[in-house]
Amino acid sequence: MREKPKPSERLIVALDFSDPARAETMVERLGSTVAFYKIGMELAYSGDASNNGFTLADRLIAQGKKVFMDLKLHDIPNTVARATAALARRGYEFLTIHAYPPTMAAAKEGVEGSALKLLAVTVMTSYDDADLAAAGYGFSVQDLVARRAAQAWGAKIDGLILSAAEVPALRLMVGDEMILVTPGIRPQGAEADDQKRVATPASAIAAGADYLVVGRPIIAAEDPAAAAEAIVREIEGTSG
Ligand code: C5P
Whose CA is nearest to atom 16 of ligand 1? Predict the structure, then answer.
């Protein structure tokens, strides 16, 4: 069975900034409380040639932090295989790809022999059934999530990004082997912002999540380190 990470490493802070200098200031403020950071497209593509999301990722890794590159790759198999092979040499911990079977198979081939773990995005949480119908799909969100999760499992993808509400059913389906990562986390009493289905850190961990991705409740807090520390304590105090 896969070993659970240490509580302090189960919190992934989303560096949702479009300025690498501001993201780096946040990392400094969080100090040793946070060991794992998510860099999404907004930060990755921001800044200039000498300071951008990719150079920040390199500096984080040099400091011993873990990096989740949330680049949500999807292209023809040849391109995906080569792109993931290039990213696999950068020392990142996680990389997201869309859960289309040819994309997953190509990404798997690209990271072969490296330590980079692939996380599949099943259906964007901002989509509803009407959006899928408009895009030409004959599935509800729930059915498409289940179908793509099963395909990700079959393709031996390391993990899935999903909401805490989806975790129990997915855990039953994929067992302990897959890494389940949940955004949409809000400590008790925090603003939901634009997240539609939120869970507290404790409830997501108890439901079976391995990692929690938290953005605004930490990066927009008056005291980000205290907010992060409180979430780590909540993870520590929950069995799951
Ligand atoms: O600020 P907040 O905690 O809502 O940030 C959550 C992070 O997780 C953001 O970086 C967002 O892009 C990401 N995310 C999400 N829902 C998904 C996938 C990723 O909120 N389904």
Answer: 183
Cα–chain-centroid distance for residue 159? 9
Q: Does domain 7-239 have CATH number 3.20.20.70?
A: yes
Is residue 72 annotated as a catalytic residue, yes or no?
yes
CA distance linking residue 234 with residue 214, whole number of Å: 13
Whether this prediction's pTM lies above 0.85 is answered by: yes
pLDDT in tens, 149-176: 999 999 999 999 998 999 999 999 888 9
Is the Cβ atom of 40 under 6 angstroms away from ligand 1? yes
Does residue 171 have its Cβ closer than 6 Å to ligand 1? Answer: no
Residue 214 in contact with ligand 1 by CB distance below 6 A: yes
Sequence spans of domains, the chain = 7-239
- Closest ligand 1 atom, CA of 124? 21
DSSP string for residues in 48-65: -SSSBHHHHHHHHHHTT-
